[in-house]
Hints:
This protein has 9 helices and 14 strands. It is an alpha+beta fold.
Amino acid sequence: MSLPTRRAAAFAPSNIALTKYWGKRDARLNLPLAPSVSVALAELGSLTIVQPDADLAEDVMVVDDQPLDDAGMVKVRRVLDQVRQRSGSRWFAGLRSVNTVPPARGLASSASAFAALATAAAEAYGLALTPAELSALARSGSGSASRSTAGGFALWHKGERDDGSDSFAEQVFAPEHWPLRVLVARVEAGRKAVSSTRGMALADTSAPFFRAWIEQCDRDVPACLDALAHKHMRSLAEVVEGNALAMHATMLAGRPPLVYWQPATVGVIHTVRQLRAEGAECCFTIDAGSSVVVLVEPQDARPVADALAAVDGIEEVIQTRIGAGARLLSSGEA
Ligand code: 2P0
C-alpha cells in the first residue's frame, strides 16, 4: 500500500445560519436536534494546509501563527483520526491555518476552520469522499462546519442514525440564485463569550421551553427554504429574525442566563426593523455573540450599511456576498 506524501491546501468559507443549530442529540459526534439552513460568506473563512509527515510523533497545528490550544487539538485529532482510519495511514500531520474571520465576534471561525481542515486532510491522505461524507467529516470537528463545506444556501439534515452518517449539509441553492449582500455589524463584546458548545448545552438542560424551541426549528426550516425559493425578503425576515430571537430566548431563560447582546446589538435590531418599515429589503440574524449580520438586497446595501455604521457602538460594518463552499487550492507530492 502506498503511503500518503501529499501536501494539500484548502479554503472554506464561514457561514451564517438563517435558522439555527442550537441543541445536540449527540455531543461527541455533533449531531443536531434540528435541521438548519445557512448562507456561506464569500471571502471570510479559513485557509488550511495539511502535510502528513512520517517523522512527526503527534499532530501539530498552528493557527494565525499561534500553536492551537489543547481543546482545539482534541477536535482536530477527532477529524484527523477518522481520515487516518479510513486511509490506512498512521502518519501524523503538520497543519497551518489562517483565518480571515475576526475571532470570537459572533462570527463562527470554527465552521470555516473545520471545513477547511476536513477538505485539505481528505485530499492529503488520499481519500475520495462524496460531498455528503466530507460534510459529515467536517461536522465531527464542529457542527456548523458541515454547512461550510456545502457553501451557497445550505441545508444541514439532522439525520436519524446513531453514527451520524445521514447528518450532513448540502447546497440547496447556488450563491447566484439570490445574490444578497451580507453586512456584518461588528459589536465589541467586551469580554470572552461563553462558547456555543457550552451555551447550547446550558440552554438544553435549563431553559424551560427548550423543546418548544427545537419544534420551532423543525417548522422554520421548510418556511425558510420556501422564502429562499421565492426570493421573498419579507417572508425570509419573519422566519430568520424570529428564529434568531427564539434562540436567544433560550439563552436568556437558561440558568445561569446567557446575555450575549450589547446595547449596540439591540440598536441594530431596531434600526433594521425601521429600515424595513421604510421599504428597505433586509433582515437581521444574530449568532452566539453580540455582532449582528444583515442580509440585504443589492440595491439597498449602501444605505443599509450606512445606517448600521451610524448605530452607537458599531465598530465596523464588514460587507461581503454569499459564496461557494470549501475548495482545494493546491495539492502535490511533498
Ligand atoms: C449556528 N451556532 O447554527 C449556531 C447559531 C452559534 C449560534 O453553530 O459545539 O461552533 O462545535 O458543534 O458549530 C456554533 O456552534 O458548535 C453554531 P459545536 P459550533 O450557526
